[in-house]
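Chapter summary example.
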Amino acid sequence: MMPDPTIYRARTGNSIGRHGLAECLASSTLRPAITESRRFTRRAVEYLSDHHRVSQFVELGCGLPHGPNIHDIAEQRSDTARTLYVDSDIVAAAHGRAMLHEPPTRFFTDTDITDTDAILSDITTVMDMTAPVAVCVSGTAEWISDAPAVLAALTDRFPVGTWIVFTHITDEFYPHHIQAATETLRRAGIPYHPRGRDEITAMLAGYQFLAPGLIVPHRWPPAPSRDDDNGDDGDDGDGRRLSATAPRHRAAWDLSAYAAIGQRCRT
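The structure predicted for these 267 residues follows.
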């Protein structure tokens, strides 16, 4: 099942109706690109937790809760995991606060992502910046017209060693479908900005990528494990259930998105 389509709204406060956006996604290659990007983000959290001892995660533009969330994965792997969610959408903020009000290691703020000073303040207030931190920017930059400048402003102030988990929709593989979906969103008053590989690479210039670099999200290793008890609703065609992190899109097929894990390097 596809995640709740209202997750994918303008991350700086604009929104589109559930029905209109669902129709837009269902009729284009945007839908699998978004869902596989989310699964990549979950795999990335697993990977950074397991292989790089990252237990602090920030998600910029988190949308509505849809399990397993980042904190679910991080807390399975570390008793000291801390998660900060950021989304200025009113509905997302209400749901986020309701979900996160109990544990003292989960935080939510409705700060506008483009207010980089406030975002940095939020992060440094709740995270130990002397320990590894990963910032997840997945399905977020497409909604921001000046995303390259916003990301650069944040990156310039992140400590060396900060991780980024990044996905971005592109129109390089299925330009007609993605451009049609983009136009549908724009007619609804929501600017949407697919970007090409060169522009995405430039946005991430301050990071050293983990192998295999910038790649379509469903091909990013390591190969996911199968987990019959995960609780996810999909299967692989022979009755075995797949984990919520497992790609569902066939590896041989292209996908209208790019993804990467990078670490802030010295300039």
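To summarize the output: The beta strands are 56-60, 82-86, 106-109, 134-138, 163-169, 207-209, 257-264.
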